[in-house]
Amino acid sequence: MRQFFIALFAILWTSSPLFAQDDPLPDSVAEPYVAYEEAMRAQNYDAASVSAENAWRASHSARIDPSLIGILAANYAELAQELGNYDDAYDAWRASTEVAVEIGVSAEEQARRWHYASFSAFMDGEMEDAWQASDTVSDLIPEIDTSLMEEGFLLSHYVLAAKANQSDERSLRARGFAVAGIAYLEEANQTDGRNYADFHLIAGLGSIQAEDWVEAALALNMAEGLFSQTGATRDAAISGALNEFSTASMDDEEEWEYVLQLQSSSFPSDTYWDDDTIENQRLIAYKPYPMIEYQWVRRRMSGTADIRYDIGPDGRTQNVQLIDSDLRRPVTSSLIETVESWRFAPQNSENVPFPVVEKTAYFEFSDGYLSRDNQSDGPMPIYRVEPNYPISALERGYQGVSVVMFDLSEAGHPINIEVLFSSPEGAFETSSIRAVEDWRYEALQEGDAPETRENLTTRFTFQMRN
Fold it and tell me: What is the pLDDT of residues 40-80, one digit of tens each?
């Protein structure tokens, strides 16, 4: 984060113009200002910063033109910011902007100074000051001629405003800046960088705050795909966990809407492609997995079930029937209800009705858990338990997600377990770690690459159900 903003600021930083003064400056101002110029020529920026601050502060008690006070403040602000003294830089930039407003300098110059003030506050961790300064920039943007601004100014503003608002838990406001940033980058055909992924993550977080689950899941799926492309494993895992939370919060209609939009996005999911076609078109399928009562998990239930069903003209399942099963009736009843909720649509087409198709669903349980065809690559646990929902979280009504990273020992035991992300903070970390500690994997076999057993990630969704 810090390196990114320093690099970005280097694009925008232009030295303040030296001022001309017909009347002699008071010695209290002139002497430190001369020392500042000499230090700058010698590239002694620490000394230049001290002299620039002395000149600016002395100017407050001297009777000189306010515009010169503003320039002296900007001189010091630039150096303090470049040297990492962000607290002092913010104070100086704010003083400079207040003078700029007072004397009526151009909207472009006011926007620049407020933007630098926002940047300094952000880097100092003062998020409220940062987003307040960014809001002022936003108010000025309709008045400015963007052709007069430095290249990248608007992008820098959107990045800073989105991250400052998000960091201060103003997710809805942050979403607005993220959406504007996405549009900016798409228009500029700059969709392969980190900013594009960050904007989608922030937009997704804002949509979660708004309980707009479809928009949240679409944005977070995009963020997960973009982060994965750039090797940002941690951010991809966080985006994926938040995506799962969003989809788990949807009702059937919302999830069907999400599935249809997802499969035409840049990162469609293999989960929603069916293995059949209708009229030579691949099928998009919404096939949620069954919710099995915990008593059957605890009893380590094993067995299979075959269920026949038709895909009706409207894409919904009909005539759902149990064909064969060695599972208990409560379990098969849950499986039938699940299949009855499935929906299908032809790829790239909304031409319904389509011919009725007869199909069969196969379910297999092992040690209480449903085997899934869409398991990810990499080691899979031979024994897995889900985390307990913390009593304190239940009592407080907390819902959320956690992302856990771990390595595997040669014996197949999870080690070096670390929570990469958990929300709400402090609610689910302990429960997640304790669950992963109990997992077991196959022992390392001769010829296996050890690196495939390092930095594994998993994620948990904690959601209360009626």
Answer: 999 999 999 999 999 999 998 887 888 899 999 999 999 99
Q: Which tens digit of pLDDT belongs to each residue from 209-230? A: 899 999 999 999 999 999 999 9
pLDDT(129) > 80: yes
Global confidence as pTM:
0.77
Q: How far is CA 51 from CA 82, 97, 302, in A?
A: 15, 21, 78
What whole-number distance in Å separates Cα of residue 58 and Cα of residue 76?
12
- In angstroms, the first-to-last Cα distance of the chain is 40
> Rounded distance, CA 190 to CA 196, Å?
8
Six token digits for residue 306: 């075959």
- Bridging pattern class, strands 273-278 and 317-325: unpaired
14 DSSP assignment: -
Residue 35 CB burial class (10 angstroms; 0-12, 13-18, ≥19): middle
DSSP summary character for residue 387? P
Q: 406, 438 in Cβ contact below 8 A?
A: no
Q: What is the DSSP letter of 93?
A: H
Peptide bond into 353 cis (omega under 30): yes
User: In the chain, what are the domains?
Assistant: 2-248 (1.25.40.10), 284-370 (3.30.2420.10), 391-462 (3.30.2420.10)
Rounded distance between C-alpha atoms, residue 466 and residue 317, angstroms? 25
Separation CA 275–CA 370 (nearest Å): 19
- Retrieve residue 404's tokens: 């856990």
Nearest to 50 by CA among 38, 36, 64: 36
The pair of structure tokens assigned to 101 is 């407003």
List the one residue out of 222, 213, 223, 219 whose CA is nearest residue 256. Answer: 213
